């Protein structure tokens, strides 16, 4: 069964450093997402991406964050200058269609990248 | 704005018994999707079951079923014949028309041998 994959599984960085989290969505999916989960808290939406541009973003997704699909398979989340409060689990997800349009309309999640900012 | 509420932070159930996890949500939309995701200690998010709001029939996936009450905005998950591998954090989630998923705070389920 196709899966969303994410690398690395755990990233440790110093405050102020740039990090890039990588995701490989399910191959026939066109919609991509990033979520984060601070330890002990609920999962929060960051951004959705379709057709090489951001569809929606939350208040969390400020100028320090960016997303990119650099090639036909990868989807990346970049944090330019990490802060202590960016420490969290970051989940990538993908889906085949928007709600109401058809397809499974289900977002499938990757295993997550645990980001630790020191 | 849509919200998802899970009022049970933790629950325990004896192995082989049945347990129901509660979830309520608030929305003004008429067309949406609801999900239950499972997060084991590995912290991966695993889809358990999904329900389309326009369908009156409750979704079922093997030992997992939901009780979807649209008017009451309630979406509970029933796990039958609980197994040790069911121990995890369970998140109720709402998918809105703008394609973002809103999660509840989760219910930690313990399975007692």
Features of the shown structure:
heterodimer; A: 118 residues; mainly beta; four-stranded antiparallel sheet; B: 113 residues; six-stranded mixed sheet; 12 strands; 0% helix; 52% strand; globular
Q: Could you explain the architecture of this structure?
A:
The complex is a heterodimer of chains A (118) and B (113). Chain A is mostly beta strands and 118 residues long. Chain A has no helices and 11 strands. The N and C termini of chain A lie far apart (37 Å). Chain B has strands spanning 3-5, 10-14, 19-21, 24-26, 33-39, 46-52, 60-61, 64-69, 74-79, 88-95, 101-103, 107-112. Chain B is globular and about 40 Å long. Chain B is built from no helices and 12 strands. The A-B interface holds A 31, 33, 35, 37, 41-45, 48, 55-56, 58, 89, 91, 93, 95, 98-100, 105-112, 114 and B 31-33, 35, 37, 42-47, 50, 52, 91, 95-106.
Q: Uncertain spans of chain A, ≥5 residues at pLDDT below 50?
A: none
What's the tally of helices of chain B? 0
Give the overall average pLDDT of chain A: 90
Structural category of chain B: mainly beta
């Amino acid at each position: 069964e196709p899966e969303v994959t994410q690398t690395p599984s755990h990233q440790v960085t110093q405050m102020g450093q740039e990090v890039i989290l990588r995701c490989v969505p399910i191959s026939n999916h066109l919609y991509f997402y990033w979520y984060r989960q601070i330890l002990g808290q609920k999962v929060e939406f960051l951004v959705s991406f379709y057709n090489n541009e951001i569809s929606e973003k939350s208040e969390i997704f400020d100028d320090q964050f960016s997303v990119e699909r650099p090639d036909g398979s990868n989807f990346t989340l970049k944090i330019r200058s990490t802060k202590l409060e960016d420490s969290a689990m970051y989940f990538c997800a993908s889906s085949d269609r928007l709600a109401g349009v058809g397809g499974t309309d289900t977002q499938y999640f990757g295993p997550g990248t645990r980001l630790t900012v020191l | 704005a849509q919200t998802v509420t899970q009022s049970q932070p933790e629950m325990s159930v004896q192995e082989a018994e049945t347990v129901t996890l509660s979830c309520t949500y608030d929305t003004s939309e008429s067309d949406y999707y609801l999900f239950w995701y499972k997060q084991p200690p590995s912290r991966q998010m695993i889809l358990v079951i999904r329900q389309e709001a326009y369908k009156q029939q409750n979704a079922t996936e093997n030992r997992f079923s939901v009780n979807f009450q649209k008017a009451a905005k309630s979406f509970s998950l029933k796990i039958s014949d609980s197994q040790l591998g069911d121990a995890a954090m369970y998140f109720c989630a709402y998918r809105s028309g703008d394609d973002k998923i809103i999660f509840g705070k989760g219910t930690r389920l313990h399975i007692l041998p």
